[in-house]
Structure formats: structure tokens, C-alpha cells
Specification:
The complex is a heterotrimer of chains A (540), B (237) and C (332). With 237 residues, chain B is of the alpha/beta class. Helix content of chain B is 33%, strand content 23%. Chain B has a six-stranded mixed beta sheet, with helices on both faces. Chain C has 15 helices and twelve strands. In chain C, strands 1, 2, 3, 4, 5, 6, 7, 8, 9, 10, 11 and 12 form a twelve-stranded mixed beta sheet that branches. The longest helix of chain C is centred in the last third of the chain and has 20 residues. Chain C starts with a helix and ends with a helix. The chains are: A mainly alpha (540), B alpha/beta (237), C alpha/beta (332).
Chain lengths: 540, 237, 332
């Protein structure tokens, strides 16, 4: 297992190539399959192109604004949470931040309507005080509220993770040089935030681009049509697969283009390791009041819709729900799916990052290497904007032709979920892995540690926290995912969100609310489980 | 500016879950003391307490007889150089040093001149525009020392800042600190794992063991003493 | 971790392993039909008791998805029967050439309109209706025209015709009543529309949460609330212009290897063994012979004086144009 300095592909690079190929295959195959079964080229009239242009503008507008607001709101929240490292309940707050991701959009939309709608809590309050008439959020405002709900939490959690990487010496220096909160932000926090912000913002942007139910319901009508809606319509109601693929390609290209721009702004986080004992932040007292306010405001915004979901949920007849065998089948399926998808996502992320690390260490200079690097970055991101309906239908065609449609469906669902979780895993792991690389690479090389051995002995123990966070997000995402699982629906393959939707679709909204609550509970359980991973834990 | 005397009077401290530490000793004004002792004996904690990064559970720390309890790190007559991460990675050398003058980087002409002088003194002339990653390990620590100089405090605390450097380079750095000590008559405390460094640069040496200051004497006296429990074992003599 | 992963994969595969080897009839349908509380499981038991065969339901998200799956699978489909599409999709389904004539007796079939389709057999029907919350609205719209021209502050939630069947139903309803003036009617109606949801579930959920006092659904919706929740709070508004119909049908695929059994199933479908389960499990009107009396709640439902239904071919030919008309009228 000696790492030689001479030419020849390194195992890590090979693993990265394999992961890259796997991702490419998993995404390109269905798109090609859909094009292949096309009876004719898509019918694209001038009118239709005009329509596409107008929805593209709206798509970018809503996603851009949603991203901007989510990130702007996340920065103060993350600062406050990172600064106040000890307040009671902080652990729970951090876990809750991963939760919106796990809740099916339908559930969140109803929760938001209950809080912000015409007859919602806030409207009722405003009306009873005579301040104003009912709120009308339907339109851009509603879309933004829902997207900020989903993504501010996500962005804040990722930012907190980054801020916690700041070495303790920086805080001692700040104390010694009598930095005010402004100075701390300028000299310590902002550089870290800036280095991770492009990654976080692009993630949020993609999630908003691909958002579907939120946009339609809260957008107030067809004025709020996005590309994703048009793709869905093309594939389902018009059954025009090539057009769906074309639109999906457009959406992909749009995001890829923005990433190329965004990539220019991205900076790699500088290596920061420390042997020092954790330092308490010098600014924790001075800012306590404002931090409490920020955290309270952020939490209120996040908690109100969650509270609405909980309140509708606890009224549910849990006895009835748990007495149904289908509930247990759905639960087991969802948990297995979430664990499989999260594990797979982490393995893929690790392969990609290990390959990047190796390329960076050996300073492999060729153009191929740099193309490899950037395609790895992109592949780990753009999957989110290939609509699940396209991936699902395409894979269905492939599997059907090969006669595997039924037996392979769950595997494909797991893979698709893993691919969707990959961008999260990459963003969480990358700073830590790159930092680790610069610290331990030489030592490992000198000891001849490489491959799995190195992963087990060196990387895993040090990166446990990052792995746990990435795992938690990936599991949350796939336990709440509806898209992929719905595509291969068969009576035997029911997941919790699918069951929830079925209940919802047959008047049983009270039971559905109960299932939503249970889903959230299991998701928190998974996050808690991921956090229990201890350095050096059994890993084989 | 001349150095301040530092008194530790029955200073008690423990990290959560760690062994209790208890320090009593005095560092004379203008002395250059090397702290030696087995790892875990509390060397770094001692200077963190002096710098105000940790608050004692009980006991007093005083500078020239004035109790420092409740005084923020920035308001103590102290400046400290760490083993690592002394610099902000995204700021160039000049700016990193300038932070020692003003956190908001409002610099007067005089400030700039002082920064330039400190760069000359530490051998950094012409490197002002470099980023930390473009510097060698020794140069990075020089920047940290230059910043300590512009802060112009009576006490300089050094937490193994040269541990990662080679022998020759380490001697250069110690010589630099020693010169600064002589010129400015600062009180210097250097945490070191190498008694040879202490003999080479310091005027005094303090031996710590199991959370106590066992002895604090002039260098020659300490290293030739035979009445200090644990010292022989530590030095391997 | 790798071991855990392998284990998980194996478990996933095990979840979907095929079971027995009896004569098997495969029926594609939408998933709420075969949910534990839907009619599917009961019908399966009933049919299997008489056929000495195994009935396999394959459930896809919704009616449109079932047809799309048939299209994707083409002549290689393992489905014997497709059950669950409605009359807005039958022409499109026939046009694929994948279905064959059913060839069974239609004597049992009871519909408010004559049934002439030789390919598809109806099994239930319903009428679209505006459901209102009687605690919020004392005088509901008495006609479609009143709905269209009513108070803009009294809101309704509807579904998107591009993504949902009821949404398409309303589009056809307005077309059937207003013809060339449909665009204008939409423009007026859109003042009252709180929002347009992608599916029935979101709309109905918002309605029952009280966000809007009216929703587009079916005349049978109040029956669920009466039977399951013993409340008459939610009622359907009756419109003299007529209510647009949804007729759900099933058809046999040409590629079926089991045609006699498939015909046997369609025949069974028009009789009580199937039909008895429709009213309180699928919440639609049975389109065939029942032996159990309908629950009382069904007596209290609005029974439209006039059933509206555009021909399947017309719908198939003009749907895109009508959706464009809707888009233009409502995004203005």
C-alpha cells in the first residue's frame, strides 16, 4: 500500500473516477433513454419558446431572491448560534435546523398556510388588533416565505459548522487585540463565511430552482410557473419526453452557467488546525442580548410552521396509525432507504474528495486533471436540478427494457436519493477533508498509510463530526423525499412520505398530519443517531 | 516601557474534568523566564491565566501589585504569541501586524512607521504584502512577534512558538526574542519543551510539575540545583 | 459501515421479491385505489375467491402516471389491465393502439350518460363540484355563473389543469358551459381564486384547514365527512348549468397473455363483488350493479340535474389549446 510519487493512476483518483462515472451514468442514462424512445423531435413553436423564456425568467427570479434572503437571514442566525456556544437547548436547536429538509413540501406548505395564510395565526392576530386586513401571501411573497423557511435553516446549520472550525487561537487573539463584534466579523468570521458561502448559496439556489409544490401552491396560480412545472407537465400530461429532457437540459445548463460564475468567487478555506484547547469566545457576553434576539426571531420564524405541523399532528389517531401494517412497512422501508442513501452518498462524496485531495497533493498539472476537478465539483451539485420525474421515468424505461423494473426499483430509488444528498455531503465534508489533507498528508505518506487503512485510522476519527452532520442531512433528505420513491410506486413499495400523501389524497388529512409528525420524529432520531458516532467507533 | 512584575498568589484552576492546578510564584519585572516541565504540568495554562484567557477559580494574579481579576485580556499589560494560528490567513503581513495597533485598521502615519520599525526589527522588511501561506514557518512567527512589539506591552508571553522550527532557525528566533528583551526590558515568559532553549536565551527558569510551580530561579541556579524534586527526572540527568 | 450498507441493499431487494406462481392477473392502477383503506384489497379478496387466480395490483402515483407507464412500457408491458384513467384520457389511451376491445356485456353498466366506448369499461363516476364550508358561507353560489361572477373576497382553491385531474375537469366544465367565452369566464373567476395547487390533496387540505371557504372537488366529497366524521359542515353547491362528469374506466391491453382472465375481471368489475366497495372506499358513485344499499349519506348528496361530458376525441384534440387559453386568461 505504498504511495509512490511516480506516474500512474493513484487508487484514490481511480475511486474518484469510478464515483464520477457512476454519477454520470445514473443521471445521463435516463435522459438518453427518454430521448431514445422519442417518436419525434419535440414540437417547439415560437410561442412555446416565448413561454419557456418567460418561465425561465420567473424561475431565476424566485430562486435568486429566495437564495439571497435565505442566506442573508442565515448569517446573523449562524453567528449568534456559533457565538453562544453553551446556552441550554442549543443542541436541540442545531438538530431542528436540519428538520425542514426532511419534511415533505406538502406538509410544510400547509404549515406555512396555517401561520401566514389569510386565515392564519398572524392574520388573525393582526385582524384582532385591528392593524390590518388578512395577509395575502399568495404570490412571490408566499414562495419566498416557504423557501426561506426551508433554506435559512439549512444555510445557518452549514455556516455554524464552518464557524466552529475557527481555531481557538483566533479567539484568544481577538480577546487580546480587543476586537469588537464588528472586528470579529470582519477579520475572523467573514473570511470563513465567504469561503463557504458560494457553496451554500449554490445549494440553496438549486433547491429553489427545483422546488415545485411550494411554487405552485403559494405562488397563487399559473403566473408562478417554473421550469420544473413545465418539465413535469411535458412528461406527464403532454407525454413529450424529448421536450422534458430538453427543458431539464436547459435547467441544468442554467445552473451550470451560474456555477461557473459562482465558482470564480469561491475561495478555499485556509487550513486551520489547532492543538490548543477550545477557547471561549471573548464576544459571547457583549453580544448576548442581540444574539438572544436573533436566535429568538429565527427560531420563531422556523418554529411557528413546525408548531402548526405538530399541533395538527398530535390530534391524529395514533392508535389507528400504528395498528396499520402498512405504516410499519412504510417506516421500515423509509428507514432502510434513508440509511442506504446516506451511506452511499457519503461513500461517493468520500471517493470524490479523496481523489481531489490526491490530485491537489501531487499537483498533477495536466488539463485533464483540472477538468476532472471541475467536473467533480459540478457533478456533486447539478444532480439536484435534474427533475426526479425525468430521472425516474428514464430509469424506468431502462429497467423495463432489461426486465428489472420491479426488483431494481428500490435500488434505483436509493441511488437517486443518494445522488440528491451528495451535494450536501460534499459541501459539509469538503472543507474538513481539504484541511485534514494539508495537515496529515505528509505524515501519512511517510508512514505508508493510504486507502482504507488511512480512512479508518486517520480520516474517520478526525472527521467524525463532519461525517455525522453530512450523514444526518443525507438521511433527513431521503427520509422525507417523495419524488424518487413515488416514481416506482407499487403497492409493495411504500415509504412514509408516500403513505402520508396517500392518506392526504383520500380525505385522511388528520392521519396524514400524524404521520408527518412521526416522520419528523424519526428524522430527529436519525440525526441524533448520527451524532452518536464517536471517533474510533467500529466502522467495518 | 519597562517590564512589569507578575505575582501569582495561590491561583487555583482546573479544566472541566481535568486535574486541579495551583500556582504560586513571582516573575520579576524585566526578567526572561523559561517555563519547563513535563507535558501536562500546566505550562500553557499558567500563561493563559496570566493573559486572561482563563479565569482562576480562586487566588490572585497581579501585575506590579495590581490585581488583574476581571480585567479583559486586551486590557492587561500583556501580549502573547501562540504556537500556531497567530495570523489571519487572508490578511497580508502588514495588516496582520497592524491589527496589533488598531482592530479597525485606522492607522496614523506614526502607526505605520512603528509597524515598519517592528518589521525591520524582526527581519520582515519587504514582506509586507505577502500572505501567511507564502511565508515559511519561521517568518510567520516573526510576524506574530512583530505584532507583539507594536502592541508595546510590558509583558510578552510565548507559548512554544518555535517548537516547529529547526535547531538553527530556533536559535535565530531565540536570539531575536533575547535582543528584544534586552532592548525593551520587557518581562518575557517562554514556554518551552527544550531546556537548552531556556539556557540559551532566558535569565530565569521555572520548573512546573503536576500543576505546581516547583521552583523559579535564575537559569544557572535552577539547572545546577539538586534540591528540586522531579527536576532531575525531567532533565534526565 | 460497508457491511451495514450491503445489508440495507439486500433488505431493499427483499422488500419487492415476487411471491407465488398461480395464474396471475396484473392490473395497473393509481395508488389510492389500492391503499389499505381503498377498494383494492377488498376487491382482490373478492375476485380471488371466484377466479382461482392471483390478482396483482401495480400502483402508480395517479391516473395519468398509469397511462404514461403503459406508454413507456409499450407492447412489452406486463399489465393485463389498466384501471383508473378517466374519460379525459381515454381517447389518448386508445390512440396508443395498445388496448383492445373489451368484448364483454355492458348490461350491468349504469351511468347518467349513454356509454358507447368499445375499448374501455366504466366502473365508477362522479361529478365535479364546488364544495363549500357551510360555517363560513351561508349562501353558496347557486350557479356556475354566480361562482364566476361572485364576490372576489370569497375565495376558492382550485387545481392546476396541467398537473391534476380535477383541475382539468374544471377546465372542461367551464369549456362545456361557456364554449368560446371560456377565456372571459376564467378571467373573471381568477379574481376569486386564492391559489392553484398542483394536486387535489393540497387544495383540499387548504380547504379543510379553513384557508379558503370553497374548493374544487367532487359531489361525493361531503359523503366522506358524513360517514367518517359525522358532520354535514362541508357541502356541495348545486349548479343548474350541469356538473362536469368524471367517469373512471378500465381496459384490456393487447399485449396481455391472460385475456380470458382479464375479461372475467372486467365482467366481475361491473357486478356487486366489485361495485359494493366503490362508494365508501373510493368515494365515487358505482357505475354497475350493487347488492348493498348505498349508505344514507349518498342520498343527501347533490345529484346534478344535468351531466356534462365533452367527447373524448374533442378533449384529446383540443386540450393543449384550451390550457393555453386558460393560461392566457389567468396570467393576464
Amino acid at each position: 500500500m505504498k504511495t509512490s510519487g511516480t506516474a500512474g493512476p493513484k487508487p484514490a483518483v481511480l475511486a474518484g473516477l469510478v464515483a464520477l462515472g457512476f454519477i454520470g451514468l445514473a443521471v445521463a442514462t435516463p435522459m438518453l433513454a427518454l430521448v431514445a424512445i422519442a417518436p419525434a423531435l419535440p414540437d417547439l413553436s415560437g410561442d412555446y419558446l416565448g413561454f419557456v423564456w418567460s418561465i425561465t425568467k420567473f424561475t431565476v427570479l424566485q430562486a435568486g431572491l429566495s437564495t439571497l434572503l435565505s442566506v442573508l437571514a442565515a448569517i446573523p442566525l449562524a453567528r449568534a448560534l456559533a457565538r453562544q456556544a453553551t446556552f441550554p437547548g442549543r443542541h436541540i436547536v442545531l438538530r431542528l435546523l436540519a428538520l425542514p429538509l426532511a419534511l415533505p413540501a406538502l406538509v410544510v406548505v400547509l404549515g406555512i398556510v396555517e401561520v401566514w395564510g389569510r386565515q392564519g395565526w398572524i392574520s388573525t392576530m393582526l385582524q384582532s388588533t385591528g392593524l390590518s386586513g388578512p395577509l395575502n401571501i399568495y404570490g412571490l411573497a408566499g414562495i419566498l416565505i416557504a423557501h426561506v423557511f426551508f433554506n435559512m435553516a439549512l444555510a445557518a446549520r452549514l455556516l455554524v459548522a464552518a464557524l466552529e472550525q475557527i481555531p481557538p487561537e483566533n479567539w484568544r487573539l481577538a480577546a487580546q487585540l480587543s476586537f469588537s463584534s464588528r472586528h470579529v466579523f470582519r477579520h475572523i468570521e467573514w473570511p470563513v463565511i465567504r469561503s463557504v458561502l458560494p457553496g451554500i448559496a449554490s445549494l440553496v439556489f438549486m433547491l429553489c430552482i427545483a422546488s415545485f409544490a411550494v411554487v405552485l401552491v403559494l405562488g397563487g396560480g399559473p403566473k408562478a410557473t417554473t421550469l420544473e412545472v413545465a418539465i413535469y407537465q411535458s412528461l406527464r400530461f403532454d407525454f413529450d419526453p424529448p421536450r422534458a429532457v430538453l427543458l431539464a437540459g436547459l435547467q441544468l445548463a442554467l445552473c451550470a452557467g451560474l456555477f461557473v460564475l459562482g465558482g470564480r468567487m469561491a475561495t478555499d478555506i485556509a487550513v486551520m488546525s489547532s492543538v490548543g484547547k477550545p477557547a471561549r469566545r471573548p464576544d459571547r457576553f457583549a453580544s448576548r442580548r442581540i444574539d438572544s434576539l436573533v436566535v429568538a426571531a429565527g427560531l420563531t420564524f422556523l418554529a411557528l410552521p413546525m408548531l402548526a405541523i405538530v399541533l395538527s399532528g398530535i390530534a391524529a389517531p395514533f392508535g389507528v396509525i400504528v395498528s396499520q401494517p402498512v405504516f410499519w412497512r412504510a417506516l421500515v422501508t423509509s428507514l432502510i432507504l434513508a440509511l442506504t442513501a446516506a451511506t452511499l452518498a457519503l461513500v461517493m462524496a468520500w471517493c470524490l474528495l479523496a481523489a481531489q485531495r490526491t490530485i491537489m497533493r501531487h499537483r498533477i498539472p495536466s488539463r485533464t486533471a483540472s477538468a476532472f476537478m471541475s467536473s467533480m465539483q459540478a457533478s456533486g451539485s447539478l444532480i439536484l436540478v435534474v427533475p426526479p420525474v425525468v430521472i425516474g421515468a428514464g430509469w424506468f424505461v431502462v429497467l423495463h427494457r432489461t426486465g428489472l423494473a420491479n426488483s431494481a426499483a428500490p435500488v434505483i430509488v436509493a441511488i437517486v436519493n443518494a445522488l440528491m444528498a451528495l451535494p450536501f455531503a460534499l459541501r459539509i465534508l469538503r472543507p474538513a477533508v481539504v484541511g485534514q489533507a494539508q495537515i496529515h498528508d505528509r505524515l501519512c505518506a511517510s508512514l505508508g498509510l493510504s486507502g482504507l487503512q488511512r480512512w479508518r485510522l486517520i480520516d474517520l476519527p478526525v472527521l467524525t463530526r463532519s461525517f455525522a452532520l453530512a450523514f444526518a442531512f443525507a438521511a433527513a433528505l431521503s427520509i422525507g423525499d417523495l419524488g424518487a420513491a413515488a416514481l416506482f410506486g407499487s403497492a409493495d413499495f411504500v415509504t412514509l412520505p408516500l403513505l402520508l400523501l396517500q392518506k392526504m389524497g383520500s380525505y385522511r388529512s388528520v392521519e396524514a398530519a400524524g404521520i408527518a409528525l412521526l416522520l419528523a420524529g424519526f428524522c430527529l432520531g436519525l440525526i441524533w443517531l448520527a451524532e452518536q458516532l464517536k471517533p474510533g467507533a467500529q466502522t467495518s | 516601557m519597562t517590564g512589569a512584575a507578575i505575582q501569582l498568589d495561590d491561583v487555583n484552576f482546573a479544566y472541566p474534568g481535568g486535574d486541579p492546578l495551583r500556582f504560586s510564584t513571582t516573575f520579576q519585572a524585566g526578567s526572561f523566564t523559561g517555563l519547563i516541565g513535563p507535558s501536562g504540568s500546566g505550562k500553557t495554562t499558567l500563561i493563559n491565566l496570566i493573559a486572561g484567557f482563563e479565569e482562576p477559580a480562586s487566588g490572585h494574579i497581579g501585575f506590579d501589585g495590581i490585581d488583574a481579576a476581571g480585567t479583559e485580556p486586551a486590557d492587561r499589560p500583556v501580549t502573547m504569541v501562540f504556537q500556531d494560528n497567530n495570523l489571519f490567513a487572508h490578511l497580508d503581513v502588514f495588516t496582520n501586524i497592524a491589527l496589533g495597533v488598531s482592530a479597525s485598521l485606522d492607522l496614523s502615519g506614526g502607526d505605520k512607521a512603528r509597524i515598519a520599525t517592528s518589521m525591520d526589527e524582526t527581519g520582515l522588511s519587504g514582506l509586507g504584502k505577502r500572505l501567511p501561506r507564502e511565508l515559511s514557518g519561521g517568518q510567520r512567527q516573526r510576524v506574530a512577534i512583530a505584532r507583539a512589539l507594536v502592541r508595546d506591552r510590558p509583558v510578552l508571553l510565548l507559548d512554544e512558538p518555535f517548537a516547529a522550527l529547526g535547531p538553527a532557525l530556533r536559535r535565530d528566533m531565540l536570539r531575536l526574542v533575547s535582543n528584544i528583551h534586552k532592548q525593551r526590558a520587557m518581562t518575557v515568559i517562554l514556554v518551552s519543551h527544550d531546556p537548552a532553549d531556556v539556557k540559551f536565551a532566558a535569565t530565569h527558569a521555572a520548573f512546573l510539575d503536576a500543576g505546581r510551580v516547583v521552583a523559579n530561579r535564575p537559569v544557572d541556579a535552577l539547572f545546577s540545583a539538586s534540591d528540586i524534586p522531579g527536576l532531575q527526572g525531567y532533565l534526565g540527568t | 459501515m460497508l457491511r451495514l450498507f450491503t445489508l440495507c441493499l439486500a433488505a431493499l431487494m427483499a422488500l419487492v421479491l415476487p411471491a407465488s406462481a398461480k395464474d396471475k392477473l396484473t392490473v395497473y392502477t393509481y395508488d389510492s385505489f389500492v391503499s389499505d383503506w381503498g377498494p383494492g384489497p377488498k376487491i382482490k379478496t373478492a375476485f380471488e375467491a371466484s377466479c382461482n387466480c392471483e390478482l396483482e395490483w401495480v400502483a402508480v402515483a395517479d391516473a395519468v402516471a398509469t397511462l404514461n407507464r403503459i406508454k413507456l412500457e409499450g407492447s412489452g408491458s406486463k399489465a393485463d389491465i389498466l384501471l383508473g384513467i378517466d374519460t379525459s384520457l381515454t381517447a389518448e389511451a386508445s390512440a396508443t393502439g395498445l388496448f383492445e376491445e373489451h368484448g364483454i356485456s355492458t348490461d350491468n353498466i349504469k351511468l347518467p350518460v349513454p356509454w358507447t366506448d368499445k375499448t374501455f369499461v366504466p366502473y365508477d363516476y362522479g361529478h365535479f363540484a364546488i364544495i363549500y364550508d357551510s360555517e363560513k358561507i351561508k349562501t353558496p353560489p347557486a350557479s356556475l355563473d354566480e361562482l364566476v361572477n361572485g364576490d372576489p373576497e370569497q375565495k376558492i382553491v382550485i387545481q392546476d389543469p396541467r398537473t391534476s385531474s380535477p383541475g382539468l375537469g374544471l377546465l372542461l366544465w367551464i369549456k362545456a358551459v361557456y364554449g368560446d367565452k371560456a377565456g372571459e369566464a376564467w378571467t373573471k373567476l381568477s379574481r376569486r381564486v386564492l391559489t392553484v395547487t398542483p394536486g387535489w390533496s393540497e387544495a383540499y387540505g387548504m380547504f379543510t384547514k379553513g384557508e379558503a371557504p370553497m374548493v374544487l372537488s367532487y359531489t361525493t366529497s361531503p359523503a366522506y365527512h358524513m360517514v367518517a366524521e359525522s358532520t354535514e359542515r362541508y357541502r356541495a353547491a348545486s349548479f343548474p348549468e350541469g356538473h362536469y362528469m368524471q367517469i373512471e374506466v378500465a381496459g384490456i391491453l393487447k399485449s396481455s397473455q391472460n385475456k380470458p382472465l382479464a375479461r372475467q375481471f372486467l365482467d366481475f368489475m361491473t357486478g356487486p363483488g366489485f361495485q359494493n366497495h366503490i362508494p365508501t372506499n373510493n368515494w365515487m358513485w358505482p357505475a354497475g350493479k350493487t347488492s348493498d344499499a348505498l349508505p344514507d349519506a349518498f342520498d343527501k348528496l347533490v345529484k346534478p340535474a344535468k351531466s356534462l361530458l365533452l367527447s373524448a376525441d374533442e378533449v384529446n384534440a383540443s386540450r393543449k389549446a384550451w390550457i393555453d387559453e386558460w393560461l392566457k386568461a389567468t396570467t393576464r
